[in-house]
Amino acid sequence: MQGIFSKFSTSPTASNPAHRPVPVAGIAPPFAAYSHGVEIAAGARLVFCSGQLGLGADETVPPDCEGQAEICFANIKAILEGAGMSLAHVVRINAYVTGREHMAPYMRVRDRLFAEHPPASTLMIVNGFTRAEFVVEIEVVAAGVDTPLAEEEPRP
């Protein structure tokens, strides 16, 4: 994929040649680990992850937003691995929290996980989710190149 971004001053990350931050002038810089825009290389595969809640594999739900966000991103990582991708392939995050008090804990997790490759990101405050104990839901879009599609496993 060399040369697909040659006309730009920034380049894709080494961990994911399918996308790069869009260089932007004339607006305030991002105030956290996100990009104002992300460009996807022509021919990249896209994976759209459904919104993930802070529900562990053992069906436990941490009482705090930070713990729930960790589970959300761990679930997203597992989904992406099924498609031969990783969190480095994430180009867009939409996150939803149930109150302002949950913004900073969510952002701590996001900023730690995406410090080297910040995707475009939106964070919204919503009224609630399907169960009262959930305080955060996260969905992502990922892009990758030259990675074969994951083989589908038989359904039980």
CATH superfamily: RutC-like
Helical amount: 10-25%
Principal-axes geometry comes out as globular
| Secondary structure category | alpha+beta
Largest sheet: 4 strands, mixed
Summed up, the helix count is 2
Give the beta-strand count: 6
Walk across the major sheet and give the strand order.
3-6-4-5
Number of domains: 1
- What is the chain-wise order of helices and strands? EEEHEHEE
Strand content: 15-25%
User: How far apart, in Å, are the first and last alpha carbons?
Assistant: 38 Å
CATH architecture: 2-Layer Sandwich
Low-confidence stretches: 1-12
What this model shows, in words?
This protein is of the alpha+beta class and about 160 residues long. The chain has a single domain (about 20-145), classed as 60s Ribosomal Protein L30, Chain: A (2-Layer Sandwich), CATH 3.30.1330. The chain is about 20% helix and about 25% strand. It is built from 2 helices and 6 strands. The chain has helices at about 65-80, 105-115; strands spanning about 20, 40, 45-55, 90-95, 120-125, 135-145. Helix 1 (about 65-80) runs parallel beside helix 2. It starts with 18 loop residues before the first strand and ends in a 12-residue tail after the last strand.
How is the topology of this model organized?
Layout: E1 19-21, E2 38-40, E3 45-53, H1 65-82, E4 90-97, H2 103-113, E5 120-125, E6 136-144
Parallel strand pairs: 4-5
Antiparallel strand pairs: 1-2, 3-6, 4-6
Helix pairs in contact: 1-2
